[in-house]
Structures are given as C-alpha cells and as structure tokens.
Design brief:
The chain is mainly alpha-helical. It is built from twelve helices and five strands. 47% of the residues lie in helices and 6% in strands.
Length: 294
C-alpha cells in the first residue's frame, strides 16, 4: 500500500487479507491459498505489530481489530492398525517401500522421512534423530539451493520442536540395520559416489527417492491394497490416532510428532476416550438399564 507503519489502519489489514485470498499461489500450485494460510499470516503480522507497539513505532496494533477468515474444519483421514498392516504388506518390493514404512512407523512428515540418514541412527541407544529435511524446491526462490533433482536438502526441520530424537524398538531397529547394511554393500560395489550422503530412502542406483514419487506410490499402494486412497500425510495422522487411542498423553504426542504448539496436537484429543469408560460405566450402573427395551 506504500504506507508508513504509523499510518497502517485495520482497514488496510482487511484489504491485505482479501488480496491474499484472491491472489494466485506463490508456490506454483493450482488454486488459491486457504484461510489457514491467512491465519498464519495474521499470527505473524499480529506479533510484528505488537513488537512495533512495544518499541513506540505505533500507538495501537491495527491487526488486533481484524478477524481473519474462518478456517475450514480439519478432518484428517485415519487408517486402523489392520489397514496399516495391509498397506505395508502391499508396499513390499515397491520402489518407495522404505520411506513408506518409515512414515507409518515414525509418523514423520514427508520431508523428514526422506531426510533420514544412516548417521542419524544411534544403534547403541536405539534412537533415530530427525534433524534433516528434503523438500521439492521452488525454482523462483530456491534455485541457489536446489540440486539436479530439483530438491532442497537442509540440516533444519519445520520448527525447533520438529528437531527431535525418536526411540526405536528393537524389532524395528532390525529393519533399519538391514537398510544400512544394504546401503553399505551397494556402496562397496559402486564406490563412494553411490549415495555419498548416506540417505536411507534411495533407489538401488543410489538416487534419493523424489518426494513426489513417494506421494504417488503411497496412493498406488493404497489402491492396490483395496484401501481408501488418502494423502501421504494421513499416514502421520494414522500413527497419531493409534497412539492417542492407546493411552499416549497429548503432551507426549506433541513431542513425538514435533509440533511447535500444543494446539496442533489437540486435534487428536477427541480420539482419547479411555478415561471416560469408567465414569460412564459407573453412571450406567447407578441408573440401571435392566428391563428397558430399545
């Protein structure tokens, strides 16, 4: 708008949000941004103006007078434990088998799964560290960092909380050991130029599996298995739902998934019903349903 900060009014903020909702996406994808994106912009904008208020650059925060558009209800898709087992059986031998198995076991984001490396595994402590990501680069913004596959590889995660250490049960540690052994054997055959960075999710040629390939094969395996075809990110939701239904505390789940704030994790709270069974049973016993017919 070409305004001085001190001249910014809540009407300008409203116009800005309307512009964001109506403008084309900057990442090249089809469609327009969602109200959730505007909410994120609103949070950052609100904080920035609060800082400006604290530093006496403005006399009031105009963003505080603006309500961002209502977010669409979040409805994640879940696979049950049996469905996950069916999916993984059908993923055997698929080019994306390794990243798909890792996604379902650890509940990691796509970028985190593909970013897992051999040196991220502590075999002595049975821990794997999530501290590196692989994403599809946007040529307009990431051309300097992009590799030959158009990927951006970084020693960073979505947020500080996403940088985490996850425990690995012994039975799954065996799976990781087989991946590392396979990689080392192929590196001995083809030389040090074969997967030099030690990524876990690579082809037999040592080429990192592309994120889009992983997403496509997720849907292909689901279709092959006769399961509802949802998004790759729903593998993460499925693991979260199983954990919460089996007694995992919300705060623990937050750490495991690497959420930056607890609000993101509370979307799964409605699945945690075990604590309601005892009081519900007690009430039913007190009331008594003998002799009642449907």
């Amino acid at each position: 708008f070409g305004l001085n900060l001190s001249d910014l009014a809540h009407t300008h903020v409203k116009m800005f949000y309307e512009y964001i909702l109506d403008a084309p996406r900057l990442d090249g994808k089809s469609g327009k941004v969602s109200p959730t994106t505007v909410h994120r912009v609103h949070s950052a904008f609100h904080k920035a103006l609060n800082d400006a208020l604290d530093d006496d650059y403005v006399v009031a925060n105009p963003v505080a007078r603006v309500h961002p558009p209502r977010e669409k209800p979040f409805t994640p898709q879940y696979y049950s434990a049996d469905q996950i087992s069916t999916f993984l059986r059908n993923a055997t031998g698929d080019i994306a088998e390794i990243p798909l198995v890792l996604s379902f076991f650890f509940g990691t984001r796509r970028s985190e799964t593909l970013g897992l490396k051999e040196n991220a595994i502590d075999f002595g402590a049975n821990i794997i560290y999530v501290n590196h990501t692989v994403t599809v680069g946007q040529r307009k913004y990431d051309h300097v960092k992009m590799d030959a596959q158009g990927l951006v590889k970084e020693d960073r995660t979505k947020s500080k909380k996403s940088n985490r250490a996850l425990p690995v049960p012994e039975v799954f540690m065996g799976f990781l050991k087989r991946i590392v052994l396979r990689n080392r054997q192929l590196r001995e055959i083809f030389g040090p130029s074969w997967n030099p960075d030690g990524y876990l999710c690579v082809t037999n040629e040592g080429k990192l599996i592309h994120p889009n390939t992983m997403s496509k094969h997720y849907k292909a395996v689901a279709k092959k298995a006769g399961l509802p075809v949802n998004r790759l990110h729903d593998a993460r939701h499925s693991i979260a739902s199983l954990m919460i239904q089996n007694g995992t505390d919300i705060s623990v789940l937050k750490e495991y998934l690497g959420h930056a704030d607890i609000q993101t994790t509370t979307r799964y709270a409605h699945l945690k019903t075990q604590h309601l069974v005892a009081p519900a049973t007690k009430v039913q016993e007190l009331i008594g349903f003998e002799g009642l017919s449907g």
